[in-house]
Amino acid sequence: MVWGLRWTATTFSTATRQLSHARSGAVRPGWLLLIFAVPAIWPFVANGLPVADDGFVHLLRLALFGEQISQGVLYPRWIPELVFGYGYPLFYFYGPTMYYLGQGLVALGLTVGQALIGVYCLLILTAGYGMYWLANDLFGGNTGPSRWAGLVAAIAYIYAPYLLTNIYIRGSLGEVGAQVLIPWVFWTFRRLLNDNNPARFLLPAALSLGGLAATHAIVLLFVSVALPVYLLALWWSNRAEISSRNGKWVIAGGILAVGVSAFFWLPMLVERRYLAETGFIEAADSIARHTWTWSNFLDPSLVFAYSPKPPFRLGLIQLLLAIVGVLGLRRCSREWLFWTSLSLVSCLAISRWATPIWFSHDFLLAAQFPWRLLGITSPALAILIVGVLYLNRRLQQNALFPLLLIALIIVANRPQTRWVQTFDPRRVEIDQVTVAHFEAEIGAVGTTSTREYMPRWAVDLHAPAPLGASPAASVVTVHHASPYSLEATVVASQTTPLRWSNFYFPGWSVYLDGDKTLATYPSTPLGLLTVNVPAGSHEIRVVWQQTGWQQAGALLTGLTLGVLAAIFGLRPGRRRQALLPLFLLATGLFAFVKPPRPAPELLHPQQPVHFQGIWLAGYQAQQSGHHTLTIRPYWYVQQTPTNFAPRWLLRDSNQVIVSSANTLPYFGTRPASDWPPGTVVDDAYTLPLPADLPAGTYTLYLEQGDTPSLIGELSLAATPALGEAANNPADIVFGNELRLTGHGLAINGRFFSAASLPVVEPGDRLQYTLYWQALQPLGVNYHGSVNLTNAQWQPLAQKDQMLGSPFNYPRTWNPFLVYSDVYRLQVPVDAPGGLYWPRLAVYHFGEGRRLAVSDGAGNSYADGHTLPPLKVIGRQAIEPQEKTAFTFDALAHLLGYTLELPPEGLGAGDTFTLTLVYRSDAPGAADYSQFLHLYNETSGMAAQADKTPQDGNNPTSTWAAGEVIVDTTVLVVAPDANPGRYKLLVGFYDPQTGARLSATDGQGNLLPDSQVALVELEIR
User: In this structure, are strands 422-423 and 765-774 parallel, antiparallel, or unpaired?
Assistant: First the structure.
């Protein structure tokens, strides 16, 4: 909140100047939207890409989408890399619009992570301007509060908690895109109904509603109900003024939107029957858990507390402003009843009483979570909030009132995401290995948590293959293969089923000896693509093609775009509007007719490879990046193998092994026990390449058992020496599996390289970068922990995560390379001052077992490794009960003390507490010890405590000039202490020499025995 107030103050004068210009007509208030949107975007700038609930999912989808486009598949409905290479019809059923936008940014040179941030930033601004034009159109006018209606509504929508939750907490790219399109849809259709020249809004209306259909089907479901009701209400209230011609334009806009998006929705609806019921089952199980009750529908905080815990809620300020706005809208808008009703109905539909409605039809169950209705509630509330401007005439005449209202909205609802883990978007690298291990580790198979797009024939992904041999001995030789096609020669002694390791789904076609089509069908519990091959020698071609319904949808979209181009091309003054549908039509035609890249030719082993009932039917080997060799063998399975984990060897010209890998199939993620007999399996492995490997010819071997088989020769490019440099080199071994080669520290984004003690303050952001090398191929995705603790091992801040950067799973690490591992922590704002030590540990997440640690000198540590400490300068705002003015040499001033005595007085054996408050003058020349003595010259010592300040957590050598040190000590009176009056003495001494620091009073007089007498205490 403090940040929000500071930001508001720094921009207030600028906004006021803009306001004065806007009143004179020089600048429209819409330009201020760019300034006021900054806090909504700032977390991306300051912190990076959030680790949102679905954030990784959309990063993977964006990368996979781009990979298919690079292969020449310009609309990739089927993603062959998903579900461990079986394939998944992801973009059959999930709108592709936002991924095209992301790929446009990737084409400009951004990484996938940067592109995702760029998409979100563009969407935030686009949402604001859509709401700006809708509210301007709704309220009209260029004077008074109406002039600021658009800006207020835009800011209320940009800072709608549900929109920002979808961006920063959920990471729901498609739903955010749909929320952005909603105000554009309502605005353009409102113009079609009201404008004197509706033709100019036909194209944006068709494209915005059609784009919504191809972005997020669930939000489209809500809009398809709300929009017709809105238009009917608008027509009814203005029917005397609205021409029947306008109504025809509205109908035309709807029809054209349906046609524009037909390429997506037509095959999606028709071919939905090919999917399993998993999504509906999961939705039915979760509906009741995601509804509102009186206790969870509203966040009561003045500053909205963003939380990952559903159901997601309304903001207190958001709701209060909307309620107040309803009162103002009654005076100025005839549409207030619709927006108020839409808000109430959608909120009631999220409540628990509406649960039976959600269960009434599978169509509604597809929404999964009732709180998704907040997507349609948020724009309605944003419009209602504008009504605050119309509350009373005195406020309307105050030109600063809109700015104050905007400031309140921003401060109350800006994204509070400091607790959200983030990562550097520049470091995101995604390939097929990443995808496979993501599915294996996270369990989001197909990048969908509920597997709602799984083909209905894939009954059980983990079912073991049926035992036995192939029904007829066959020989399969694969000649060409790619993710979308395969050409092979098959020799069979009789008609026999032949399978491929792809899910059966409409779109796969198999041709025999040219153009003869073989009937395809699913087989085995995996629902694999299968055909019956007749006896003899045949050429088989497997190819992914468009279905009839996909072609029909594409044709309908093409015709619609052609109609739009003709409508505007034939209208004088509107011909430039024809360029956009013509461009979309040309792009669609190109995507429709352009074939994918030809399947590359496969290599064949120099000697037959046959073991455990499988044949090597061909392979591809390609150097991926600089340090990885990707091997894609195509096996023909005659009998399901057991314990199949082939060992790949790479030898140089002297037959010296330069690299080897021994893992499970498909990048080490799947057992071969699910390979049914009679299947052609598209498998994949990676072989790490050493750094500084010279270019040349190398020999690839496959070893199963003790006998290596010669596969063939490969020409490899030289690999560079690649290793990430560390600020502080190290040699610490964890469990004989990992070596910590170094570490670095950044404070508030700036790397700390000095040899001195790092000094930080409460609220500072710390980034520890650890550099790891795998000493052997890892069989576990280990997790790491950085725990900032004091001298008593009490934690101050902690961060646990899987080792490595996002998607760079330890099981995929190249043992020849060094990998960075970034841990971000924040010093708590109430952190006590003192020294804190980062303690590192590596552990097995499932077992909780920590790896033993040893250093280069042979020393072993049971529980981790400790990095050099850092110093926290505390902000303790403590006021001592008794103020003093004593000084200890050049070390510190004693500002005062607080004494807590037993109520009944101090007696032998009692305890009492003394809190001393110092202000440091400079770091001490040594780590001095502080002594506290309760002393009587006759009776001697009654209580004593000698220690370093703050029990060793804040040694005097680390004290900073001006630092306030609060030290609390509990003293125990000796059980045999004699009654009498005792002096409570304090001082410092060097524990190495015993020499005390001189002590002086407020007038600079040296105190005897270099000690301060604080007070006399009576022991009864």
Answer: unpaired
